[in-house]
Amino acid sequence: MPISGTLTDAVADRAGTRPQPLAALPEFDSVDVSEPAAPVHVRVYRPRGVAGPLPATLWLHGGGFVLGNVDHVHQAAAQAATYASAVVVAVGYRLAPEHPYPAGLEDSYAALEWLAAEAGALGVDAGRLGVAGASSGAALATGVALLARDRGGPPLVFQHLATPALDDRLDTASMRTLTDAPIWNRGLALESWRLYLGGEAASAYSAPARAEDLSGLPPAYISTAGLDPLRDEGILYALRLAQAGVPVELHNYPGFYHAFGGPDRPAEQQRIAVEHLAALKRGLWP
After folding, report:
1. Nearest 5°: phi and psi at 46?
2. Which of 7, 30, 131, 255 has its CA 20 to 30 A from that of 229?
């Protein structure tokens, strides 16, 4: 979601906004959408006409830890459920600065525990669970994967991370040189981490690039954009996963800004979107 001005201004503008009721959102012929009772707000997308227990993934929206809600991923979650023949669970986690770390991460992890516990009722295969997110949502997805490993939580088979924000130190080459990039830049990144952390020191779970041990994490697909200040965070994290023995697939797309915005190249952007969906399907149906 493009941001004009500061994140603080954007937070003030979204004050009091809430997700719309399902009846007010577009319907899809290919999926059933529901909002079952859960410890946190979740919206569940299940493909129609696909029998048997299905794999499932959490879907964690982006927004710099301070913006967005499940409405913003409504269409993307439905497309993912359809393409991957999987149940997609969009999570309405709490946002900073009203709810700084660890609120959003703990909400996301609670959603994972709920998904595993309710797998039977949801028609989900509890042995094939994943996490997916873009930008700050990818940071939360990565944090959930680390928590699941360290807490002995529900086992994950896959993590899908698109243009991930993983490092509060902002000291990579791309973050130092692409300071004024469109869509996302160093100033917004500084503000995002400040609001998210709420004055507390970063940890491996809030800023996963700080994690010293990446062994035992689920296989990953990571995509980065060549003109995104976050580019090198994703590339370096992918390299460290590989060095820790974690299967990882990394794709960097040159010529695009954060979240694959950029010049008017709809055919290329469509190709990237299809590849992301194909990677999700491969990860959940190994």
Report:
1. -125, 130
2. 131
Residues 174-195 have a mean pLDDT of 97
Q: Can you list the alpha helix ranges (DSSP code H) found in 198-265?
A: 231-243
204, two tokens? 């491996």
Give the SS3 label for residue 115: helix
> Helix-strand-coil percent breakdown of the chain, rounded to 5?
40, 20, 40
pTM: 0.97
**pLDDT (mean) for 256-260:** 96
38 within 8 A of 111, measured Cβ to Cβ: yes
Mean pLDDT, residues 177-196:
97
Q: Which positions are catalytic?
A: 135, 228, 258
Residue 248 counted as domain residue = yes
Q: CA Rg, the chain, in Å?
A: 17
DSSP code string of 68-85: --GGGGHHHHHHHHHHHT
CATH number at residue 97: 3.40.50.1820
